[in-house]
C-alpha cells in the first residue's frame, strides 16, 4: 500500500512551537512560525502566544513586541495569554515603561488583564526601581476586578525594599491578614531586606522572630538579610548568633552569609573572628569570594595586622579568586598602618600586572604610607603620577603630601602644594592648613606661617 502523506496543520505547528518554547529554543520557534505561510498554514492566537512566550523565555523582549505588533496584519486578535507573555518579556528585559504601556493598551483592544498580567507588570516596576508605580498597580487591581494574592504583595514589598521604603514594606505586610492573605518567606525576606537597607536592624530581627508564629519557615535569603542588617548596625555579636542558629533551622549558610558575618566582625575590629569565620568556610563547603576576602583583609587592616592582610591577598589566586582594586586598597592601607611603606609601594607597582587600575583610595593609602615613613620625595612623586593614571587627587591626597613635606622640613614645597589646590578644584580643610603652618614653623618661617590664611581668606 502507498504511504499516506501527512500534511502539517495549525495544531501540528502549534504543538511544535510550544515544544520549542518550553525547551527554551526561541530561534527554532520563530523559524517554524516563518515557515507556516509557505506551508499554507495560518498562525492563530495559540501560535503567536507560544512564539512570544519563547522570546520571553529567551530574553528577547524586542522580538516579542515585534511579533505582537504583527498580529493585526495577520488578522489575529491578541488575547490575555499573548499580552501576558509580551509583558513578561518586557519585565525580564528591564523594560518597565513598555510593560506598563502594554497593560494600558489591553482595555482598548477588549482584553481583560488577569493576575498574571498584574504580577508581570508589578515585577517590571520592581526591577526598574519604580516602587510608587508598583504600589499604584496593586491599588488598581480591585477596580479591575482582579484580586491580589501573596505573589502580588511580595512583588510590591520587594519594590519597596529596592526603593529603601521600609515603612511601606511593613505597611504591606500588616495589610495582608485584613485581605485574608498570609505573608510567605518571599514577603518576609523583602520586608527584612528593606529594614536592612535602611539601617533598621532591630526591626529586621523583630520580623525574623515573628516568622515561626506566622508559620513561615525562614530561608537563606531571610537569614542573610537579617545578618546584613546586624552588620550594618555594628551588631557583630547578633550577626554571629544568627549564623550559629542557621544549622538548627536547617538553613545552609552561603557566601553572602559568611561575607556579611565577616564584614560585621571587620566593622567592629574583631579581626580574629573574621579570620576564624574565613577558615570555617571550606569545612562548610562554601568557597570564599572577593567580597569575603575583602572583608577579612579589611579586618586585618583595621586590627593593625599587616602580615595577615598580605598573607590573605597572596592566598587569593590559589583559591581561584582574582584580587580586585578593593582588595589591594585594603592591603596597602594595612601596610600604611603598619609603617611598611616599601610593601605598600610594592603592592601599588603590582596592580598594573594584575590588570587593576589604582583609584584615589589606593593613592591615598600609598601616599600616607610614604608620608609616615618620612619619604616626602616619594609622596610628591605619587601625587604627580595621579593625573597620568587618570585619578583626580582629593583633599586626603594633598593633606598626606603636605604632611610628608612638613615632616621632611620642606616648607616651601608644602606651601606650593597648598597654592595648587584651588587650581585642582580641591578645597583645603583644617588638616591642610595645620600641616602647612606646622611646615612653616619647623622651617622657622613663622611669619610665612600666616600666609596660607591670608591667601585663602
UniProtKB/TrEMBL annotation:
It comes from the Eukaryota. PPR repeats lie at residues 9-43, 44-78, 79-113, 114-148, 184-218, 219-253, 254-288, 289-323, 324-358, 359-393, 394-428. Keywords: Repeat. The keyword Repeat applies. It holds the Pfam family PPR_3. PANTHER family: OS03G0856100 PROTEIN (PTHR47447), OS12G0638900 PROTEIN (PTHR47447:SF17). This is Pentacotripeptide-repeat region of PRORP domain-containing protein.
Amino acid at each position: 500500500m502507498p504511504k499516506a502523506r501527512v500534511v502539517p496543520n495549525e495544531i501540528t505547528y502549534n504543538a511544535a512551537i510550544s515544544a520549542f518554547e518550553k525547551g527554551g529554543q526561541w530561534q527554532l520557534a520563530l523559524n517554524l512560525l516563518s515557515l507556516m505561510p509557505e506551508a499554507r498554514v495560518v498562525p492563530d492566537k495559540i501560535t503567536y502566544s507560544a512564539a512570544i512566550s519563547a522570546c520571553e523565555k529567551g530574553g528577547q523582549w524586542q522580538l516579542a513586541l515585534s511579533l505582537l505588533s504583527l498580529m493585526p496584519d495577520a488578522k489575529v486578535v491578541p488575547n490575555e495569554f499573548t499580552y501576558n507573555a509580551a509583558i513578561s518579556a518586557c519585565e525580564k528585559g528591564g523594560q518597565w515603561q513598555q510593560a506598563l504601556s502594554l497593560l494600558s493598551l489591553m482595555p482598548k483592544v477588549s482584553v481583560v488583564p488577569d493576575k498574571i498580567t498584574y504580577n508581570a507588570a508589578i515585577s517590571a516596576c520592581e526591577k526598574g526601581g519604580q516602587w510608587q508605580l508598583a504600589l499604584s498597580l496593586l491599588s488598581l487591581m480591585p477596580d479591575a476586578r482582579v484580586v491580589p494574592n501573596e505573589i502580588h504583595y511580595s512583588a510590591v514589598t520587594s519594590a519597596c525594599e529596592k526603593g529603601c521604603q521600609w515603612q511601606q514594606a511593613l505597611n504591606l505586610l500588616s495589610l495582608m491578614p485584613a485581605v485574608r492573605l498570609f505573608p510567605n518567606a518571599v514577603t518576609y525576606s523583602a520586608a527584612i531586606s528593606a529594614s536592612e537597607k535602611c539601617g533598621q536592624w532591630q526591626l529586621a530581627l523583630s520580623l525574623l522572630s515573628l516568622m515561626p508564629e506566622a508559620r513561615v519557615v525562614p530561608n537563606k535569603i531571610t537569614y542573610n538579610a537579617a545578618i546584613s542588617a546586624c552588620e550594618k548596625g555594628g551588631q557583630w555579636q547578633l550577626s554571629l548568633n544568627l549564623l550559629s542558629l542557621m544549622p538548627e533551622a536547617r538553613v545552609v549558610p552561603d557566601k553572602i552569609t559568611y561575607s556579611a558575618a565577616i564584614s560585621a566582625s571587620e566593622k567592629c575590629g574583631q579581626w580574629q573572628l573574621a579570620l576564624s569565620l574565613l577558615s570555617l568556610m571550606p569545612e562548610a563547603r562554601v568557597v570564599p569570594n572577593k567580597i569575603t576576602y575583602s572583608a577579612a583583609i579589611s579586618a586585618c587592616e583595621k586590627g593593625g595586622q599587616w602580615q595577615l592582610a598580605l598573607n590573605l591577598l597572596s592566598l587569593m589566586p590559589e583559591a581561584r579568586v582574582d584580587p580586585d582594586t578593593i582588595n589591594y586598597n585594603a592591603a596597602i592601607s594595612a601596610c600604611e598602618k603598619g609603617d611598611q611603606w616599601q610593601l605598600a609601594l610594592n603592592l601599588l607597582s603590582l596592580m598594573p600586572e594584575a590588570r587593576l587600575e589604582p583609584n584615589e583610595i589606593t593613592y591615598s593609602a600609598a601616599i600616607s604610607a610614604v608620608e609616615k615613613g618620612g619619604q616626602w620625595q616619594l609622596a610628591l612623586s605619587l601625587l604627580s603620577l595621579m593625573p597620568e593614571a587618570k585619578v583626580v587627587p582629593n583633599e586626603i591626597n594633598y593633606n598626606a603630601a603636605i604632611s610628608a613635606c612638613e615632616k621632611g622640613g620642606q616648607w616651601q614645597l608644602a606651601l606650593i602644594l597648598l597654592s595648587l589646590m584651588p587650581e585642582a578644584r580641591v578645597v583645603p580643610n583644617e588638616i591642610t592648613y595645620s600641616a602647612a603652618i606646622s611646615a612653616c614653623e619647623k622651617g622657622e618661617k613663622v611669619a610665612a606661617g600666616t600666609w596660607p590664611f591670608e591667601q585663602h581668606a
